[in-house]
Amino acid sequence: MQQGNRGGPARGPSISRRELLLRTGMLGAGAAVAGIWPGSARANVPERLEWLLEQVAEPALQLLARDTFAGLAAFSVPGPDRYSVVQGVTSATPGAVAARAPELLMHTVDVYIAWPDSYVQALTAAFSTAVDDVPIPSTLLGGLLRALELVGATLDDALELVLRNDRTLPAALPLALLVNFAATQVRTSAVAGPIASSPFANLSWHEKGLAFQRIEQAAPALVALIDANAPEPLRESASGLLRFVGNVLLTLTSFAAYSEYGVFDRATRRATRRPVGWEASRYMPGRTTPADGWPELIGYYQDRRAVDTAPEYEGA
Amino acid sequence: MRDVIVVGAGGGGPVVAKELAARGLDVLLLEAGPHYDDPETQWSRYENDCNNPADGYFRFGPDDRWETPPWFRELPQNSFVWQLAGVGGTTQHYFANSPRAMPGVFADYDGPDAAAYDVAHRFPFGYRDLLPYYEWVEQTLPVQTAAMGTKEAVFFRGCEGIGLPVNATKDVLRDSFRPQENAILQPEGTAGRTSDPARLLHPEARGCTFCGFCFQGCFEPRRAPRNLKAKRSTDNSYVPMLLTADAWAPQGRAATLLPNAFATRILTEQAGGRTVARGVRWRDTRTDETHEETARVVVLSAGCTEGPRLWLNSGLPDPNGWVGRGYTDHFIDWVIGVFDDYTGNSKGASSSARADFPGRGALEQVGLPPALTGFATGFSDSGVRGVYDNGRGPTGSWDGRAGRVYGAELKELLADVDRLVNVLVLTDDDVEAHNRVVRSLYPPDEHGPIPKVVFEHRRRTARTLANREFLNDRAARILRAAGARKVVRIDFSPLPLHVHSTLRMGADPADSVLDAHAEARWVDRLFVADNAALANALGGPNPTLTNQAIATRTAERIFTRWFGGEGWVGREAPVSSIDDRVTAAVLARV
After folding, report:
1. Looking at CB atoms within 10 Å, which of A80, A226, A243, B413 has the fewest?
2. Does the ipTM exceed 0.90?
3. Does the pTM of the predicted model rise above 0.90?
């Protein structure tokens, strides 16, 4: 997992998830409001397996975020990729996943959305229920995960571990959890689908819209979860936060899909080949670099090269 | 002690600095962001590399864009405030559209439609009073009538099709359309006539080369001296002039430009029972050191969001509570036409055509490359077309409900970026006290408490909302008349690109921060010279030219009131920023 890079000397106090749960009584209150909160913290992982969980926690959460944003990318600009296939809306030509929109989106929100660490942690904790039934992807570390599988370890356990240790978390993580939480509200069974680590990515294209409807309209269940957990003085800001992040995620994804990011070489500051989005939009056919000009000049409307102050205001 | 310290090198600050440097004053110009002094090597013009809000070279943050995060601002609603640090400020990415304001927003207006404007918040002086300053700036930049490419021809065809008359003057007198008056050197030589890079070098090519990258920074034609680049962003016009004022002004004295200097406090003292500005404290964003200098006059030109923040963080008086209030943004919206034929959407100056509707606002045709088109099609308050509408999704003369274009529809709409024509809706929006900048409760950053920008966009006045609907209707009709086979309206969320009036001047001391000369009502020797000083949203026209005209007027006021000098506008002829004396000095030292 990337370390958050939110800069500035002033940071709010960190709140461990355990402390948070104790202090706010979140589990009970959250369950009552949201209607689907589990009756108890999971904590299925025996202490002897925690070293193993420690090894996979961050890669597992990184995969969770990546798969979620890939599901969003396919929602924005579908292609022939598996995320588009799962949502039931595909396209023969490459889309936002091939353009590496998920990676750019994660990077951008991590850097751009500079929430205080305590806020990121609280949001992460608040939405962890989105993945409490989602197993840790078995592709990580191969057979070593068998022990974790046997005890039913989930991504929620990985989250609890990183929160307990008060690590700096990237903003992409709670945003991915938020999107997944909204997805489970649209269809509970989305936790079990072909994209193992992201319920959102398992939704149909239309269902993805319904998940973002809940975010953009600040569905009461989402608002209550955030307000129950956000540290002071940031309570009561949940509805604005949801509308902000919903719009940012949807908009930046489309921007990313048609940008050069996926093929941009930072060292030379040039695209190494045609960006997917340029090809999809027939932008500057054949080029990989911005052009210095075009023979696009037609002339001047009514051949007028200059105008003056109106007679009504002459001599003012 | 300096004569004058100007905080902010965006659209307005360099104007004051240049004018006063030309009068021989000792001027220090502070800029929080970097100074790109060799754009041909520093700006790639790739959209993400430039416009990404996290680490693009046109972001709002310190100069080490790949190492340090941007400066975060709280937005408690679905909105995006497109701030931009660096010498030139937002003129680095602006389209250089330089229309004059609607005459109806000024104190002297008595036309038959006088009641159609934001009558409670007019400018505290007359349109006629401002005309000499407009003309001064128009000759300095200079402003020229825009040339036409295919996308402009399409837009004009639509305007003709709905029966709009053409406006062949610089002033808006009635509903009409016209080529933009742009602060862009128009194409000469091979510019606009070839795509061969070897033939697009200055001086064979002069003026706009039709590259299509206004929003990614203008350095065309390559090899042109900085003051002869096509787009007259202040980094290409006023900044070269202020740095060379001794070379082209008889009594001129070159100003000092200090980039990477984030102002954190306006310093004041008490004198004669009044609060008096006496200097500025700033932080060097590279070394983390704090500096202070004193000055006889301080000019705040930090923008509509940072200006109120600095005011409040400095503990300056705010007795009527209007510091930060009255934020106007033209409540912009976006309408897209899809055509069967080539439109040249991605080529040429980004906006070279407009239509004006006094009392309503304005429309302008906008060309964009694909990623920004993705942004524009995604930025909506009306949900996702075909799925949900957030309780809005207005219908009208466009196709279907307004909303975000997504999925298969987006891919189809953007299947050829050069078959689109975009129309930006610029609403004549009212000053409203509840749209404002306050200090956020989020943790402060290295420069103090951060600003929070509040837009209650669904509570805009009935006039503002009606104007926006009127303009969207006209935009869709223009596109259809031009031959669009599909027209979509996005219904933008608040996207303050045109920002105004958060430290507004006004006739009424109860709802203004500045007097009629842009001097702070409660702090002597403190002036504001940027869009924040504007009394209102100008009736819809793009604000930079008016900001610059008023900044010129403010510079005169500073010189006459605090330095015993005489005014010059109307008495002298301005020196153009492309004058040979400026060019020679730029080649010698900038």
Report:
1. A80
2. yes
3. yes
